[in-house]
Amino acid sequence: MVSEEEKKFISLINEHQGLIHKVCIMYENDPDVRNDLFQEIVFQLWKSFSSFRGEAKITTWMYRIALNTAISGFRKQTRILKTEDLKELHLNISDSWGDEREESIQRLHWAIRQLSEIERAMIMMALEEVPYDEIAETIGITQNNVRVRMNRIREKIKKLMRN
Amino acid sequence: MELEELKSIWKNGEPVFQPKDETEIASMLKKRSLTVIDKLKRNVWLDLIFTLVVSVGLLVYVLTLRNGALKWASISILLVFVVYTFYYVKKLILLNRFNPADENIRAHLESLIDTLSGYLKFYKRSYSLLYPIFFCLLLVLFGLERGAEKFVENLTNSGTIFYLIVMAGFYFFLATYVTNWYLKKLYGNHLEKLKGLLNDIRE
Question: Per-residue b/e over A10-36, b at no fewer than 16 CB within 10 Å?
Fold first, then answer.
């Protein structure tokens, strides 16, 4: 028998599962481990669902728990992503984009995965249009710090994509 | 390359994923957690239950014994199990202090490092107390087996005392080394990784 709260939670996860999938893809290369991580994030979200009072945006709350689980809660050794692994990364690339652009997309994904786990979390949220104040709140640093670090991350990505 | 340009590249090549249906999501709520703290808690609960079950069994056995060496040896082991029960309860209290809730990444890391460090410190301190107890217990059991009088007589011999001191030193060194190696292998490396992540945020 599924409770009303469970139904509400499942529909919430169903609606925002893209966010969880993206965090899993960002932190785990192995599909099986990624699946375990997805389950763990859903479980952790469920554990703290009753204490969520709507003070933060639902996506901010989800990012916080998903990233906490992926970065520090979940202990699995992952191998370093090599450039040839990019071919295995399935990306939904628009047909109107040419080969050169397709390569840029692959390079961006590869470059992001070369960053530290905290930098990865920050750039991922920024690319997903999460405002800087929410990024600051999620990471636990000031907005000013987010701005400074985001410039550094951008520079790193630029260099990595050029190599 | 500006952030807007990166966003445009990102938006045009989002990773493909297999969406989970509602039944799959519902089944995930019933699964066991795989986080470090939850795994530790499960292990300590198992140890505690095992200790309690064996203690009750041993107590029943002791009550059937007549006075003698075997009875006293069993009582000594039972006392060690009582100490272990407190030890596991304390471990659970330490682990329950960690409340992941929905803190930000920095606070979560600080809390996790604090809990794991406290847990490991307690683990090491307990064993530095328990190892001498184990050693003395072994000595008593050995003495009881060989006969108390002969054992006490041997203890007055300076050669035996020297041999015991060397044995105690070697036993303590080896046990501490193995415990430290085991803890580092199990949680030490993970703790170092967590500290590295926190330093990255604090930079």
Answer: bebbeebbebbbbbbbbbbbeeebbeb
Q: Per the structure, how many domains does chain B have?
A: 2
Domain count, chain A: 2
DSSP-based three-state secondary structure for A93: strand
Q: pLDDT tens-digit profile of A31-60? A: 888 999 999 999 999 988 988 877 778 898
Taking contacts as CB-CB distances below 8 angstroms, the residues of chain A near B106 are 139-141
Question: Is residue B133 domain-shared with residue B195, that is, in the same domain?
Answer: yes
pTM for this entry: 0.81
Query: Given an 8 Å threshold on Cβ–Cβ distance, is A72 in contact with B25?
Result: no
Instruction: Spell out which residues of chain B touch residue A102, defining contact as CB-CB under 8 Å.
Output: 13
One domain, residues B44 and B132: no
Tell me the one-letter amino acid at B158: S
How near does any CA of chain A get to the CA of B115, in Å? 13
Structural domain containing residue A27? 1-79
Whether A74 and A93 map to the same domain: the answer is: no
Given an 8 Å threshold on Cβ–Cβ distance, is B105 in contact with A90?
no
Nearest to A86 by CA among A111, A68, A69, A61: A111
Q: What's the CA gap between B2 and B11, in Å, rounded?
A: 14
What is the CB neighbour count within 10 angstroms for residue B173?
11
Expressed as residue numbers, the domain containing B49 is 31-96
